[in-house]
Design a protein that fits this description.
With about 260 residues, the protein is of the alpha/beta class. The protein has ten helices and nine strands. α5 packs across α6. The longest helix has 16 residues, at about 165-180. Keywords: Hydrolase.
Length: about 260
């Protein structure tokens, strides 16, 4: 499924995170759709390779020229994989709240999140992360509140209410993605990305920025970096960073 915003030609596609954060990039698509043609592909497959192929099909059906992929969190990785495998489809990639690209930096995420939660909140958070497919509706709301506290600087009221989490997708796809990072395959794909890479990252995001730029620097992969102040993992949900985030995206799409 694909949701469309604005008018053709489609200049950008927003790629949601998770894996399984269905509709997570809807506010970005709606905002950019006021000025540009924007696609919001919805992920529906349960393996990494199937999601790459699905996005390739979704893009191929509706674009005539290479498009900008704006990927949030896991969606940043998926965007890089598609840009690597199907370079003729992608004009540039924008990484928003990208997770670390190498395993050595991954432990910092958990450490930073735990410091922002009480001991009892930590226990609930860890349980949810291990049992995503079994979480009840009440549990999802509890996890959402924990994520707000752990991942955001100052989240807007009612933010994330537009998203629906597919726990089954998370439990199946994320371990595959982590293994790709651990064994170095993720960076091997990224090394072949030929299009421009833009990085937008919040200064309060628990995902360490050095986990993105250091691996890219080590392979002499060029990128453009924008750091947002008073901003956590999802700039489009942040009170202080939202407007600057959209200014940057609009500048990128007009360039």
């Amino acid at each position: 499924m694909i949701r469309f915003y604005g008018e053709k030609p489609y200049r950008a596609a927003v790629i949601h995170g998770g894996p399984g954060d269905i509709g997570g990039m809807r506010p970005v698509a709606e905002r950019l759709g006021k000025t540009f043609g924007v696609m919001e592909p919805i992920q529906s497959q349960y393996t990494t390779i199937a999601l790459v192929m699905e996005l390739r099909r979704q893009l191929g059906l509706h674009i005539k020229e290479p498009i900008t992929l704006i990927g949030h969190s896991w969606g940043a990785w998926l965007s890089l994989l598609v840009a690597s495998c199907y370079p003729f489809l992608v004009e540039r990639v924008v990484l928003v709240g990208c997770p670390p690209l190498e395993e050595i930096y991954a432990g910092h995420i958990h450490e930073r999140r735990m410091k922002r939660l009480s001991k009892e909140e930590q226990e609930r958070f860890i349980w949810y992360m291990k049992h995503m497919a079994a979480i009840t509706a009440e549990g999802w709301e509890d996890l959402r509140q924990l994520m707000i506290k752990a991942d955001h600087y100052a989240q807007k009221p009612n933010a994330s209410s537009y998203a629906q989490m597919d726990g089954k997708m998370y439990e199946r796809v994320w371990p595959e993605a982590i293994e790709m990072r651990r064994n170095g395959n993720l960076m091997r794909y990224i090394q072949s990305v030929a299009c421009p890479i833009h990085i937008i990252h919040g200064d309060y995001d628990p995902h360490p920025l050095e986990g993105i730029i250091n691996p890219l620097d080590s392979l002499c992969i060029p990128y453009r970096l924008q750091i947002l102040q008073k901003c956590g993992h999802a700039p489009f949900d942040e009170i202080f960073a939202e407007e600057r985030f959209y200014q940057i995206l609009e500048q990128i799409l007009r360039s």
